[in-house]
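subagent[fold] <- orchestrator: predict structure for attached chain, return C-alpha cells only, no commentary.
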Amino acid sequence: MRWLGPLLALLLVAGCAELAKSPDESRPAPGNKPAPALGVPKMRSDTLKYLASRNLKPQPTRPLNVRSRCTNKDGGGTRTRLNLLVKEAEVRTFDAEIAMKGRGSCRFRLADFDQVERLPQALLRNKRDPGCLVRMWEEGPRVTIAFNSCPQSCERDAFDYLWPIMVEAKSGRCF
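subagent[fold] -> orchestrator:
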C-alpha cells in the first residue's frame, strides 16, 4: 500500500507530459485543412476579396477646377441653388442656398469664409465660427461640397438634414 501513493503521483505527472510528434503526424492528411493557430483568428472578408480582384488606383491629387451655376429640386422637396467658381484650387465664387421643405434653409456665402487649404481639398473656414468648415473635393467626374458643424448658417433644425451638394464637373449640373 505504501507504493500506491507514489504510483498515482507518477501516473498523474506522466499523463500531463507531451510526447514528441513524428514528422508525419505534424502534417495534415490530404484533403484536411490545418486548424488555424490559436490566438490569431482567421477572418474572411468578402469585401476585401472583391476589391483584391479589381484594379483600383488612388485618386490623383490635383488642383480643383469647377464652374457651376445651377438649381435643383429633388423628390423630397429640397431646393438647391449654387453659384460656384474654383480655379486652380482657389475658391473665387461660392454662394449656396439649400431650402428643405418643412425644415428651414441654409445659406453659405464666400464673404463669410476664409480659404485655409487648397490641396488635397479646398477648405473654407467660417470667419465667425472656426468650427464651421466647407470642404470641396473631386471624385472622378463629380465634385462634392460638404458642410461640417455649421448650424448657425441654417434656420431651425435644417442643418440636421443637410446633405453634401454634388456637382458634375464637366457640365456644372448639380444634384
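orchestrator: received. Logging for downstream: Strands lie at 66-73, 79-87, 90-100, 104-109, 113-117, 122-126, 133-139, 142-148, 165-168. The chain has a mean pLDDT of 84.
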